[in-house]
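Structure (tokenized):
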């Protein structure tokens, strides 16, 4: 790499071989190209390809208190995306880039070299994973048109980056909520590596005790409802005029109950759960149940009386785990 040209400038366009000559990696790999020397991970995004699979990489129009987020869909052509094995090696390279000392560089396809099929890519800039929520799970289509769980990375700019309208995620034309499998969740994606991460946490994937407990609580409650013969799913929601995607916690299809789970029974957790249920519950409807669902906060233990009263004031149920069972689950409609 001693004779490699200088790094690309923002907005600079090049072919994969030209880009890999600077940043390393194989020019023949897929959308995620790890490099050992220099230590980089190259992310190639192609809006035309994404549309074919029902997703669109790009900037979210809705900024949070930290700033802008660029959503980038992970690698995997068939079946659920994963972090495990050869199939998930690219996704794992993105997830673990901080621990590996690698930098993330994002490129967006902008056409082809005149008279050829060779694609051109524009340099958007350097990014890092959002430290609070590095990725989300979402339902999308694979190359056979079959639904599958997709990994969507949340990228934060590192220094100056190029922010163009062409890279913006299109806003939803109408509000749309669809049922997706209960397994469409971050905790399921990381489940095979739980034992590896309990002792020490990767720098790029901050996982609090409350978040781990929430995942364990979700798994246990899903198993509890399923054992009773209930169908359990989630709702994936897009709001008209917005670019983001919302994902509810567990939804009991059988009894039309929407649950919001938290890994702790603290005041902030209960208040957040209340707000989420009041928000999500407006869109959770099916042909069989067009009315607003029963809404319940599920916690690992009972909160203090004041928080229980707050939920009751808003007609929100309260359930909690008690050993191997759950207390406060609404009675079945059947």
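Design, position by position:
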């Amino acid at each position: 790499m001693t004779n490699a040209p200088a790094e690309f400038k923002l907005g600079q366009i090049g072919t994969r071989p030209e880009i890999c000559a600077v940043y390393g990696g194989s020019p023949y790999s897929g959308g995620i190209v790890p490099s050992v020397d220099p230590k980089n991970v190259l992310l190639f995004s192609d809006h035309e390809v994404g549309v074919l699979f029902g997703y669109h990489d790009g900037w979210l129009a809705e900024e949070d208190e930290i700033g802008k987020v660029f959503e980038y869909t992970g690698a995997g052509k068939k079946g659920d995306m994963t972090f495990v094995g050869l199939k998930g090696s690219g996704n794992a390279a993105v997830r673990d880039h901080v621990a590996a000392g690698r930098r993330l560089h994002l490129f967006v396809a902008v056409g082809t070299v005149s008279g050829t099929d060779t694609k051109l890519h524009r340099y958007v800039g350097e990014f890092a994973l959002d430290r609070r929520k590095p990725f989300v799970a979402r339902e999308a289509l694979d190359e056979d048109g079959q639904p599958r769980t997709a990994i969507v990375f949340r990228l934060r700019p590192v220094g100056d980056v190029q922010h163009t309208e062409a890279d913006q995620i299109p806003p939803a034309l109408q509000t749309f909520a669809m049922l997706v499998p209960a397994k469409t969740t971050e905790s399921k994606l990381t489940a095979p590596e739980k034992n590896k991460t309990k002792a020490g946490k990767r720098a790029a994937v901050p996982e609090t005790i409350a978040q781990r407990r929430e995942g364990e609580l979700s798994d246990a409650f899903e198993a509890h409802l399923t054992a009773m013969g209930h169908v359990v799913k989630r709702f994936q929601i897009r709001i008209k005029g917005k670019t983001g995607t919302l994902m509810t916690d567990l939804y009991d299809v059988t009894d039309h109950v929407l649950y919001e789970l938290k890994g702790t029974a603290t005041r902030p957790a209960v208040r957040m759960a209340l707000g989420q249920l009041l928000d999500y519950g407006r869109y959770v409807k099916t042909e069989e149940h067009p009315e607003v669902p029963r809404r319940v906060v599920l916690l690992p233990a009972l909160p203090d009386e004041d928080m229980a009263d707050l939920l009751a004031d808003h007609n929100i149920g309260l359930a909690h785990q008690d050993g191997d069972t759950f207390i406060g689950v609404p009675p079945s409609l059947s």
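Reviewer-requested clarification: Residues 193-207 have pLDDT under 50 and may be disordered. The domain at 1-169 is CATH 2.30.280.10 (PUA domain-like).
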